[in-house]
Here is the input.
Amino acid sequence: MQYGIMKRMFRYLIFQCVFISVSLLCVAQEATLNIWDGTDCNATVKLTPYLAKGEKNMAIVICPGGSYFWIDKKTEGKGVAEWLQSNGISAFVLEYRVGGVAAFVTHYRLISRGNRYPDMLQDVQRCIQIIRENAIDYGVDPDKVGVMGFSAGGHLAIMSGLFYDNDVLALLGIHPKVSLKPDYLASIYPVVSLTDRSTHKRSRRGLLGEGMSISNEMKDSLSLERHVRKDMPPTFLVNCVDDHVVKYRNSELLDSAMNIHGVVHKYIQYQTGGHGFGASPEKTTSEAIEWKNEFLKWLKGIMK
Here is the structure.
């Protein structure tokens, strides 16, 4: 008899633990949505909100890296979002359109368009539109919406701050009534140039396509250091000298251009840390992971 009671109590406790765990997960991560639902765009682009508690929170669109061919959903997506959320910042992980593994392996975009620029810029602009138009529902301040990107996603983040007045959503028949200009940018070990000797060629190909699509005109038009503007959003920039994936000169070029144009920004160059670590201490050095604290301090300073 006593054994039966204890067994039932044990099962009840297990059930409660599972219920609480699921409930906490639901609080931490809102339902993923397709940003193109209800539009004439046939793409499926996922946006996953990680909402902080409270109202009028800052919001950050996260663009993970992946050479414009794939998306690092875990380290540079979910991991970063949970860190920001734990610091009172609502994060939105955007799985923007990329070339895909098939395009990387087969070069099929020589005969079929596939995904390429400006698809990913449209995705970021649509994301900013959705967040600002639904700011009350998300509990965020529409005037404190930024974009953070890593590697190729860092290139995309900067593009969102340079080309916000390019009418790429109009190509899809969408005319937002809110501003598409981010309030701030964060670009972590980013791809920057598509023309310099430091160019990350895989990302360039992922972004532009194949063959004649990678023209000198297109390379120039999307080399960020050539299009820095004084009125771009305040920018936080980080990279590591020992980055063997995206050469550190990329960030130096961007920093130099922002200095010339008087852009409000902070550039931190670490000697060690590598590439692709996101917000994960175990994937980089104790030196480079300090970028997280530096970013939070910087953001607090500019968003007073």
User: Anything to note?
Assistant: The chain has ten helices and eight strands. The radius of gyration is 21 Å.
